[in-house]
Write a structure and sequence with these properties.
The structure is a single chain. The protein has 123 residues and is mainly α. Helices cover 72% and strands 7% of the residues. A two-stranded antiparallel sheet has the order 1-2. The longest helix is centred in the middle third of the chain and has 88 residues. It is rod-shaped. The chain starts with 10 loop residues before the first strand and ends with a helix. 0% of the residues are buried. This is t-SNARE coiled-coil homology domain-containing protein.
């Protein structure tokens, strides 16, 4: 009976029955494969995985730095908007008071002009 974990290349992975899920068990068939080639292939794959892991780590660090900068920028913008709203509220309140004063002065001037006009025409 043939072994189900053997491949024609001489290297096969078999399912992990015990242990953690991140373990990989390999069986190398010395009859059909060159052990040195398999080891070199595995070493190159490990080095490639290490390079990928370093790239992922540097990208994650860059993304974290970017998020931190954006959060700081957002908090600065929020503080600037709050200060701007306070100034705007003060300006609106001041202009509203000035506007009411201008309406009152205009009304008094109109009343004075009408009063003077009626005094002049009565004579």
């Amino acid at each position: 009976m043939a072994n189900p974990y053997r491949s024609s290349e001489g290297l096969s992975a078999r399912p992990v029955l015990t242990g953690s899920a991140d373990e990989v068990q390999l069986r190398i068939d010395p009859v059909h494969a060159d052990l040195d080639d398999e080891i070199l292939s595995l070493q190159s794959q490990v080095s490639q995985l290490k390079n990928v892991a370093q790239e992922i780590e540097s990208e994650a660090k860059y993304q974290n730095d970017l998020v931190s900068d954006l959060q700081r920028l957002l908090s600065n913008a929020e503080a600037g908007v709050k200060n701007g709203m306070k100034k705007l509220n003060r300006t609106v309140t001041q202009h509203r008071s000035n506007h009411i004063l201008q309406v009152i002065v205009f009304g008094l001037m109109c009343f004075a002009v009408v009063y003077m006009w009626t005094k002049v025409w009565r004579r």
